[in-house]
Request: fold
Amino acid sequence: MDDPVKLRLLIADDHPIFRDGLRAIVEGAGDMEVIGEAADGRAAVRAFKELEPDVVLMDLKMPHLDGADAIAAILRTSPEARILVLTTMDGDADIQRALQAGARGYLLKDAFREEILAAIRTVGSGRKHVSPAAATRLAEHPLGHRLTLREIEVLELIAQGRSNKEIGETLSITEGTVKAHVNSILHKLEAADRTGAAMMALKRGIIRLE
Reply:
């Protein structure tokens, strides 16, 4: 009697120790196997093309090409790709960006072994899996952050400690336009001041400080 076909997995994560731990969890399950690993987003895209795995386990914060962009790149050539995000990033903007890019699942790295395996099986079968923690984050902000690209640029500079004048010079816009963007940001994020808006945006994953 032939052995049952195993789910073939690609792990994309820039931390070798985490990849090793995930491989041990997966290969101890019996119904799945790791056929490849990638340490950055570009390598993940290349590995997917070469190996054609059943499921990709994708971190979001990786060098060269972040996880969400890697997901989008894979899906442009393989629309049926099944990708499960496994990350520490729990901001609602992070979750929305990954799901909008085409991920079929979202799981945080502090999930228990059985939840990780169940999520892999669910995504491998073509269904979606969003962890309760991620679903709660999305429910708290159902419309997303709704900031424009320019407002996000202004927020990033605020988080770097720039004044309105410095932001205007950096973005080649007037100080009055910067003030208008700041007021819009405060309103949309329901923040009391610039510092509060920057802290909220960092927490939700709207902006990042590299």
Summary: DSSP finds ten helices and six strands in the chain. Strands lie at 7-12, 32-38, 55-58, 83-87, 105-108, 129-130. The CA atoms of residues 22 and 28 lie 10 Å apart.
